[in-house]
Amino acid sequence: MNVEFYIDTADLAQIREAMSWGVLDGVTTNPSIVAREKRGFEELIRDIGRATTGKVWCEAVGANADAMVEEARAFRQWADRVVVKLPMGAEGVKAASRLAKEGIETNMTLVYSVGQAVLAAKAGVQYVSPYLGRVDDVAWSGAELIGGIARTFSRLSLPTKVIAASVRGPQQVLDMLNIGVHAVTTSYPVWAAMMKHPMTDIGLEGFMRDWKEAGL
Ligand code: G3P
User: Looking at CB atoms within 10 Å, which of 78, 95, 127, 180 has the fewest?
Assistant: First the structure.
């Protein structure tokens, strides 16, 4: 399937279980997600790298482009297949342009407009992540924003991928796929909920009961 799915967490138990399903392409994190684990950043990212054969997304927290570039180089030592997340803004764009020349894969995060997405793409990032749920939280349409970015990228034939972030339910995952994003990241509970259906549970229970009663 030509679409990428990521789990948005730094919880190792959730990562190990979710990766064992064989349908996820890696792990995305952000500073808030990492802070929740209350342990050293490097050690945590190294553990996440060992828990997945997919990509490990790590966000730079430096105050300027120089610091972000240094962090990006360090992340690459911590795990294979690292995607460096950079915050949208002049320093993030500057860092993205420099990392593109070094062949380091990057993502521009906290993207809230088509203009920001286009500038990030021009800087050479591989992904942009607009935040679906957080746009909806402030009474605008996250789907409209993400649809607009996807349409503009396609019209300009840009190779940059759109990864929908801040996705808070299984229906939103499907809405994003229908809008034409290339990737989705969401939490463990959302992926787990997407796998479940009460009718599946009822049906399976019936099959197992009948099987047992027949004594085959
Ligand atoms: O990692 C970025 C994004 O997925 C966070 O989502 O639910 O905190 O808005 P949320």
Answer: 180
